[in-house]
Amino acid sequence: MFTSYFSSSNSPKNPSEEASREYQVKILEKYGKIVNSLAALDCQRGDMKRQLSSVVLAFILASLFIASLRIERARAAGVIYIRSDGSVEPSDAPIQPNGSTYNLTGDISCSSDGIVIERDGAILNGAGYALQGAGIGTGINVSQQNNIAIMNLKIRSFHYGIWLSASSNNALIGNSITDNFDGIDLWNSSNNNTIFQNNITTNTGLGIGLSSSSNNNVSNNYLVAGLEDDIYLNNSSNNIISGNTVLLSAWTGIGIFGSSKRNLIIGNEIANNTMFNIRLYWSSENSIIRNNITDNVVGIQFDNSSTKNTVCGNNLTNNGYGIRFSSSCSKNVVLHNNLENNTVHQIYTGYSANILDDGYPSGGNYWSDYNGTDVFAGSFQDETGNDGIGDSAHVLDAKNADRYPLMGRFETYYVGSWNEAPCFVDITSNSTVADFGFNASQKCISFNVTGSSSEGFCRVTIDNALLGGPYTVQVNTTQLDFTTESNGTHSFIYFTYSQSTQKVWITGTSAIPEFPSAMIFQLLIVITLLAVAFCRRIIPKSKFSWG
Q1: Where are any strands of DSSP class E within 453-515?
Q2: Are 110 and 134 in contact (CB under 8 A)?
Q3: Which pLDDT does position 68 carry in this prediction?
Q4: Is the Cα torsion angle 410, 415, 418, 420 positive or negative in sign?
Q5: pLDDT tens for residues 41-55?
Q6: Of 122-131, 274-283, 324-333, 415-424, which range is least confident?
Q7: Rounded Cα gap, residues 29 and 34, in angstroms
Q8: For 59, phi and psi rounded to 5 degrees?
Q9: Is residue 410 within 8 Å of residue 338, measured between CB atoms?
Q10: Secondary structure string (H, E, C) spanning 212-279
């Protein structure tokens, strides 16, 4: 995915599209910076699943043993302060200081506010204990403080679970935040914060709210059953919202409001929110990429002059409306999405003019209700031979058409990063694709295809820098004929086969090196520095005279 979205194209262009593409090119750089983290998180999830069965029994036994040794009661407390000098007030609060780390030693019950952190660099470790409120006040209050970590704490029944105001470079990790009004709020230029792996459930206001706060990373959180928006951005820009599970909000899963710009919404599971899975209101130049957006009244809603946003590579499935635009929302780019079984409209345009494809040969979207054929090829679909792109446009109204609808589902496969640039292979197919792999030393891409129709096809998009041609295509033991298109930077390989379970190999003549020259140079520098440090440790300084 994203290998060819905004590269040069051979197809006719609408001049009004060009200005809308400038931002889409820039977001690829931002996407590249976090895709490694997403891939790593996927690996971690797999490792955790494999390890779970072997550790769960030990965990249960250990928990029972600890419970038999210590039964803690919640201590009633007034407001607890971690002062700027490092002291804790009151001194008998169940918080044990250890340098800059503050460990809870028991549950705390509060009648109003909970803990106020006034020390930069403090680490508050809840150690699994609870901070219990009475339905008012703020659980953790951080105002104009930086470099603070709040982790492993259960925060319940406050008006605000965690409140950050004008506070930056903080980390909120591994907390359980339930039954508050708002779960986590970042206000007043709270920038460069990380909100990671928190469980945020059954709050009656917002799950996570960002207001006038930028460059924050909200990743891998579990947000369920909020009564307002599970994630809410207002006048907040350049944030990354990635890898979150967002379910069962009583209104909106992710809301992007109030001139919020250049936010990246990527790799989230967003489903069964009562009205909107994602809603943009007066917000532009945001990117919604590679999310699963399912089972709602509206998958993505655009309102009130939300323009120049990018919607790419998402699965929009089983909603009433896959995407719905109001009349003032134009110049948005929607391509390489899978639009399936959205029962009212796959896309409702509101008669605003948006861009629904990336030209030829990159193509547009997959529409489960498209009933066109694929007999011809080429930018005007008048050349002999099929190419995985429909011969006729999928027309929505006089202002909106996908000129190059895809004939199969679009999937992307992350291959790796070289020189900090991510590499992908895209596959459009009417088969189920599995077991994708890339072998640089063998200059080969491989994957399995499975299907039940009489003829299967694949349209494979390859970055020429990743794997260069000329190519060969082999299915099982048979070498196939295929067609190739190019836009200068990417090759588009199309071939057909008899459906069943098949193994596909695509072999090139050149492949990206596993260790590019820049990486080797950096590696030599690191090795040299480590060697110098090691020598300094084992050889006394007095044995050397440097003159």
Answers
A1: 455-463, 467-468, 472-475, 478-480, 483-486, 490-498, 501-507, 510-511
A2: yes
A3: 34
A4: positive
A5: 444 444 433 333 333
A6: 415-424
A7: 9
A8: -65, -45
A9: yes
A10: CCCCCEEECCEEECCCCCCEEEECCCCCEEECCEEECCCCEEEEEECCCECCEEECCEEECCCCEEEE
From CA 481, how far away is CA 459, in angstroms rounded?
13
**For the chain, how long is the longest CA-to-CA vector?**
84
Alpha-carbon distance of 116 to 491, in angstroms, equals 57
Closest CA to 199 of 184, 215, 217: 184
Compute the distance between CA of residue 342 and CA of residue 433 in angstroms, rounded to an integer: 23
Please check the confidence at residue 33 and state whether its pLDDT lies above 80. no
How far lies 51's CA from each of 8, 44, 55, 198, in Å?
46, 10, 7, 21
Nearest to 275 by CA among 246, 297, 249: 297
- Cα–Cα distance for residue pair 411/425, rounded to 1 Å: 9
Residues 462, 519, 263: CA angle, nearest 5 degrees: 60
| pLDDT at position 514 | 63
Label residue 348 left, alpha or beta by phi (over 0 means left) and psi (-120 to 50 means alpha).
Answer: beta
Length of the chain: 547
Who has greater pLDDT, 497 or 10?
Answer: 497
CA distances from 70 to 258, 297, 340, 357, 426 (A): 50, 49, 54, 63, 55
Task: Find the Cα–Cα–Cα–Cα dihedral 43, 45, 49, 51, rounded to 10°.
Answer: 70
- How crowded is residue 546: how many other Cβ atoms within 10 Å of its Cβ? 4
Q: Reduced to 3 states, what is the DSSP secondary structure of residue 332?
A: coil
Model pLDDT for residues 211-269, shown as the tens digit of each residue: 999 999 999 999 999 999 999 999 999 999 999 999 999 999 999 999 999 999 999 99
> What is residue 12's predicted lDDT score, i.e. its pLDDT?
43
What is the SS3 assignment for 46?
Answer: helix
Closest by Cα among 436, 510, 445 to 473: 445
pLDDT bin (cut points 50, 70, 90) of residue 75 is low
Which helix H or strand E contains 436, and what residues bound it? strand 432-439
Token pair, residue 112, equals 């109003």
**Can you give the pTM of this predicted structure?**
0.83
Closest residue by Cα to residue 342 from 293, 398, 405:
293
Tokens of 315: 């699965």
